[in-house]
Amino acid sequence: MLGAIDYSVIVPAYREASNLRPLVTRIFAALSRIDSPVSAGQVEIIVVDDNSRDGSVEVVQALQQEGYNVRIIVRTTERGLSSAVVRGFQEAQGDNMLCMDADLQHPPEYVPQMLAAMSPTKLFVLGTRYGSGAGAVDEGWPLYRRIISNGARMLALALTSASDPMSGFFGIRKEAFLKAKNLNTSGFKIALELLVKAQIHSNAIAEVPFAFGLRTAGESKLDSKVMRLYLSQLLELYWYSYNGLIAFAFLLFLALIFLVWRYLTASNEPMMATTVQGGGHGRGQ
CB neighbours (10 Å) of residue 208? Predict the structure, then answer.
């Protein structure tokens, strides 16, 4: 019999039916290990699906019948990663809420450690690809991809001390989430949005090094629209955190970055297609 739910794992998904079973079973297998700091009975998984109609509902129903504490929310009138994460946090029963991608690039075996890292003094946990022991984050990546990844991270340095707010593998305590006002749910990097809007102090952030896994099924979501959304989100966050003059100067800088990015991606389109077909990295950048 399930006890009180203290932890909620939120999984935003779109056309990820083939990844849901391995994701859920691997999470609960990790939680059931004798050395897990969190008990499986304390955890729920919430899949927030943007009306994929790809069999995701049936996969979750089968997992429920097998005894896994997982449920799915199908959104028919909303779309977007950030709004899906926010919806999941709003529906969560646990006071400790973790967000991770459905594509298995965020290794499920790290979930117990990520959940246990949250506490009344550690309001935010971040899976970082740049911490000690994380491995080579850009191993095997083409040059343009490494430029995008590191450039995106560097652009956020003035907003947060967190080492990797781009990873998308993060958790937040419910009391901190409820303090965040005027969230931009059309933005792409909801972790960065919450770090700024919930005013998470650097000493309240726990970081867990991890190495990106490979997408095993489905399609990568990295495209030019995603990059435009990220740059727009950065501008709004700088405007929120600083004065208008600084934000305007940053806008000019963003315009230059976007032009460089467009040049790099345009000249590497064949390479990008190969990356997607062979297991490209999804939402993380």
Answer: 19
pTM (2 decimals)?
A: 0.79
Nearest to 11 by CA among 125, 106, 96, 115: 106
Angle at 12 between CA 101 and CA 122, to 5 degrees: 70
Between CA 118 and CA 142 the distance in angstroms is 35
Query: If you count them, how many residues does the chain have?
Result: 285
Please report, for residues 19, 160, 195, 285, the alpha-carbon distance to residue 280 in angstroms, rounded to integers and kept in the order given: 15, 27, 27, 11
> Looking at domain 7-277, which of 3.60.10.10, 3.40.50.150, 3.90.550.10, 2.60.40.60 is its CATH number?
3.90.550.10
One-letter amino acid identity for 272? Answer: M
Contact 241, 132 (CB under 8 A): no
Name the CA radius of gyration of the chain, rounded.
Answer: 18
| Closest C-alpha among 174, 81, 59 to residue 119 | 174
pLDDT tens digits along 181-216: 889 887 668 999 999 999 999 999 999 998 865 555
| pLDDT level of residue 134 (50, 70, 90 thresholds) | very low
- Contact indicator for 12, 91 with CB cutoff of 8 Å: no
